[in-house]
# Entry
Amino acid sequence: MMSNEALFTYTLRLADDLLILSHRLGEWCGHGPVLEEDIALTNRALDHIGEARNLLTYAGELEGKGRTEDALAYLRNERQFVNTKLVEQPNGDYAHTICRSFLYDAYHLPLAEAMLKSSDAQLAAIAGKAVKEAQYHLRHSSDWLIRFGDGTEESHQRAQAALNDLWTFTGDLFAQDEVHQAMVKAGVAPDLSKIKAAFDATVDKVLSEATLKRPADGFMASGGRQGKHGEQLGFILAEMQYLQRAYPGATW
# Structure
């Protein structure tokens, strides 16, 4: 795979994670458990979509086929999306939403910090804007997971159930292939083993405070980076892409 093609794919992976997670969090708008959390999740979704837009615009430039951020977001099918399977999982109850966010945040913050040293100036600049937001996101999701885990018997059970359900999807975050290896070799991307170490440290610390048990590593879902997804992504895209698909080229 040529380096420019690999860089395009890697950038698209970063963008798709944020785009799909943003959509999932946006589904809570007007439905949050309390007004403050309704606003917090909506703002977080906007943070993610902002970073995704920057990455999609850059991916379009790398590809060189004239596709804009909108074309990449709204005119690709499921198999062309390369997000991790974690971010496409349903919201479930609020414990599931918080747990999903926490697991992604524990990965995203050390990744963004490492990307500050990327040999790709554009990706480093995008990471520079994202780091402060990622710090807040991790603090928010950690605080809520601790509150749930160390709260009532029911909140603890719900948090543990969410963690058990979602843990299998964390393996997809750290899957390495020829694209990622090429990016590491070029100094564009960090070694995922270092990101995994930071992820593990954060997870162990927060779960200890939350009195939650870390699930054993068993079967780990993978394939998201290669465009292999569960049925949930299709439902997300059907909603997210409806307007552009129904009215091609529509602008306002």
Remarks:
- The two ends are 38 Å apart (CA to CA).
